[in-house]
Amino acid sequence: MKKKAIEDLQRISVETFKSMQKISxxxxxxxxxxxxxxxxxxxxxxxxxxxxxxLCGITAxxxxxxxxxxxLGAEDSVDWEYVENTCDVVANLKKNDYTIFAIEQVENSIxxxxxxxxxxxxxxxxxxxxxxxxxxxxxDICDGCIELPQFGTKHSLNVSVTAGIVxxxxxxxxx
Length: 175
Description:
The chain is an alpha/beta fold. The protein has a single domain (24-174), classed as 3-Layer(aba) Sandwich (Alpha/beta knot), CATH 3.40.1280.10. It is 35% helix and 22% strand. It is built from 7 helices and 7 strands. The chain has helices at 14-19, 35-47, 65-71, 74-77, 86-95, 136-141, 159-174, and strands at residues 23-30, 50-56, 80-83, 98-103, 110-111, 122-128, 144-147. The chain has a 7-stranded parallel beta sheet, with helices on both faces. α2 (35-47) runs parallel beside α3. It is globular.
């Protein structure tokens, strides 16, 4: 097998990306402190045609050299907005008929492999702080919580890894 060259990948322009149909998924970052994690979420969101990212609380915003280091320009292609209060974002998304899931370990969570999405609906996922997770006040107003099954000695994943897994799973069902 021969590795593909950059020219073989047929990358599209930012303008073309912005005009493309996106999947009905919004990503909300609730107090994510690592700029590398933020950049990674931008890059994954670009790869899988996410509608928009909301950056909330202490989550950093572009322009930022540290975000760019992992986003590689996806901060320019993916629509984003900063809103200080995550609960305000969730409430507004609910008003606009989004079904909102916190990605969090809680009582009565839904395991990711059991989530069945409807292409006719709009969804949002909230990912939280690297140490504290999604704020309880945000969890309380979400429509549900999704948990990733884990089988090792650790019971947490890096937030950008979690985002990648969740976004990919939603993409497979919504694209």
